[in-house]
């Protein structure tokens, strides 16, 4: 099934545009300019540190975005060996491919559920990254900052549910065979890494939310 992968690639190419714009925006210093009183100077310093927090979050999130793109668009999720074939059977998120002289690939309708969980979960995770970066940069209310970790957690849970359904269906497809070896492919490992980075981001944006709230309550400069 090539069309879903092509759609993922198309979405990736479109998604590169806001990523590039975001990088340029975050690494350039000219956002808002204040002049005059000490209080205004304090506001500049505060925004400077929020700016640094946002850049750190974006850099970490960029790793998750890139790894997720590679995982979804490559074709080595699980490799299975069984006693009836010398060559392994390779599964990606969309189909099964026999690594023999035929190189035959077969689509499975049962893969639709893990596909939905993986792709939608990844999209939600990416949204959580951008919400976290924007909230860290522009918003100083803790209640708003909490939104990003919640979004990230939802995305991570959906991706892990996709893993569970995916492995379950792969085992069911091969239930009549004696599986001698099951290996996780690099694509699934990359997707697992995406989830791990998502967990790190959840903790990071939770920290920035608490730090921002503490700064507001103390009414002092975080410098």
Quick rundown:
With 223 residues, the chain is an alpha+beta fold. The chain has helices at 2-27, 38-73, 112-138, 142-145, 147-173, 186-218, and strands at 78-82, 89-91, 95-98, 105-107, 179-184. The chain has one domain: Butyryl-CoA Dehydrogenase, subunit A, domain 3, CATH 1.20.140.150.
Structural features:
single chain; about 220 residues; alpha+beta; Butyryl-CoA Dehydrogenase, subunit A, domain 3; 5-stranded antiparallel β-sheet; 6 helices; 5 strands; membrane; PMP-22/EMP/MP20-like; transmembrane
Could you characterize the architecture of this molecule?
With 223 residues, the protein is α+β, with helices and mostly antiparallel strands. It has one domain: Butyryl-CoA Dehydrogenase, subunit A, domain 3, CATH 1.20.140.150. The chain is 69% helix and 9% strand. It has a 5-stranded antiparallel β-sheet. A hairpin with a 6-residue loop joins strand 3 and strand 4. Helix 2 runs antiparallel to helix 3, helix 3 packs antiparallel against helix 5 and helix 5 packs antiparallel against helix 6. The chain is elongated. About 4% of the residues have low confidence.
Helix/strand layout:
Blueprint: H1 2-27, H2 38-73, E1 78-82, E2 89-91, E3 95-98, E4 105-107, H3 112-138, H4 142-145, H5 147-173, E5 179-184, H6 186-218
Helix pairs in contact: 1-2, 2-3, 2-6, 3-5, 3-6, 5-6
GO cellular component, one term: plasma membrane
Subcellular location: Membrane
Membrane topology: Multi-pass membrane protein
Shape: elongated
Helix content: 55-70%
CATH fold-level topology: Butyryl-CoA Dehydrogenase, subunit A, domain 3
Treating each run of at least 4 consecutive H or I residues as one helix, how many helices?
6
CATH class: Mainly Alpha
Radius of gyration: 22 Å
CATH architecture: Up-down Bundle
């Amino acid at each position: 099934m090539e069309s879903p992968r092509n759609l993922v690639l198309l979405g990736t190419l479109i998604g590169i545009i806001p990523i590039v714009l975001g990088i340029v925006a975050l690494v350039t210093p000219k956002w808002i300019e204040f002049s005059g009183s000490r209080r205004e100077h304090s506001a500049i310093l505060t925004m400077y540190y929020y700016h640094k927090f946002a850049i750190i979050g974006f850099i970490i999130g960029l790793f998750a975005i890139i790894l997720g793109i590679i995982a979804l668009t490559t074709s080595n999720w699980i490799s299975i060996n069984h006693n009836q074939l010398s060559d392994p059977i390779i599964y990606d998120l969309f189909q099964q491919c026999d690594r023999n002289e035929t190189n035959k690939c077969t689509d499975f309708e049962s893969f639709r559920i893990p596909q939905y969980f993986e792709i939608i979960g990844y999209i939600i995770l990416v949204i959580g990254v951008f919400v976290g970066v924007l909230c860290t940069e522009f918003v100083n209310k803790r209640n708003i900052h909490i939104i990003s970790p919640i979004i990230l957690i939802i995305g991570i849970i959906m991706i892990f549910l996709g893993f569970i359904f995916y492995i379950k269906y792969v085992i069911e497809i091969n239930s009549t065979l004696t599986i001698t070896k099951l290996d996780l492919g690099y694509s699934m490992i990359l997707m697992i890494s995406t989830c791990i980075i998502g967990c790190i981001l959840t903790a990071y944006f939770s920290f920035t939310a608490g730090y921002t709230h503490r700064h507001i309550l103390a009414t002092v400069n975080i410098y």
